[in-house]
Design a protein that fits this description.
alpha/beta; 2 domains; 6-stranded mixed sheet; 5-stranded parallel sheet; 15 helices; 42% helix; globular; disordered N terminus
Amino acid sequence: MQYIDKNVVMERQLKSLILKDLKRKMVFLTGPRQVGKTYLAKEIMTSFKSPIYLNYDQVKDARTIQSQSWPLTADLLVFDEIHKMKDWKNYLKGIFDTRQPNQAILVTGSSRMETFRQTGASLAGRYFHYRLYPFSVKEMTAPDSANERLEKLNQLGGFPEPLLSDSEQEASRWRNQYATDLIREDILDFSQIHEVRAMRLLLELLRSRVGSSLSYKSLAEDLQISPNTVKKYVSILESLYIVFLITPYHRNIARSILKEPKLYFYDTGMVNGDVGKQLENTCAVSLLKHVHFLHDSQGTLVNLHYIRTKEGKEIDFVFTEAEELKMLIEVKTSDESPSKMLQSVHERFPAAEAVQLVQHLRQPKRDGSIQIVNAGTWLSELAA
């Protein structure tokens, strides 16, 4: 699938995988609002002879869904926002178990479907799940260099509309409306009207704390609410694919969860900070997308964490597998000298690969055991 614009061509990695999996089971496609789920679904429809697209938000389509009155010849059923239907999982279970031979089923929905998918009746064994995230350096295929693509993601974020606008002003206008719509339509599904003001203030505070240890106590003092309430609000923002948390690495998973996480936005354009913070956020989104793609498409359980020492020194990101460190990743805008912290930790874990990503790098090199590479090029070679 391609988004084509005079400034950039972008290709989604998931189309061919979804088409393959639709031959075997239902496919669920979730992700943030306006990330391109409906666009991708309609592109997938072009590979079928008689596809049907049904959006539960549309009255006519809702009636068709409830009465199951689509043509028997339909070879692809696309259900959008069906999680808003009462008892939707039992409904899909029945549709899948009694479908026509060779009839495929694709289910798409906003972030709320991801939350509801994990509760209530089970659809175990009947579907594959994919998460669609903002565009990555890899998916922006032409005509810019990897460095230029990374720069655009830092400035505009990876959501299709602001990215294709190629304008910081238009991206800002889109982002303001996007935040308003999320609060009005989604956040109120999780919280009460009197909480919306606090949620707005929290969101604004978080924009300037990207990449820093998240202190619920400090945020609670700023907002004059309890730390548990802050945790609840952050959890809501996670559920809506607005922010995500990265926990510190520890061999004991429980201890890792209890320690302070770092917070990032799915939309780098939300970051209030210098170019270093923007770059770190873009890298965080790209790395999360990479590990989730491996999980969704291959079942590979790679996890994303960071490292913090007792002295407060950090390594930006690490990949782990089966709780073992596989890769250490440090992010720099222009510093080509190897990070002392990266060197120190790599000496303790020599089996892990150590990489320093530098956005403005004259020449890739190896300094001892540390690979110093161009950030844009390295990110373009990730799985997604």
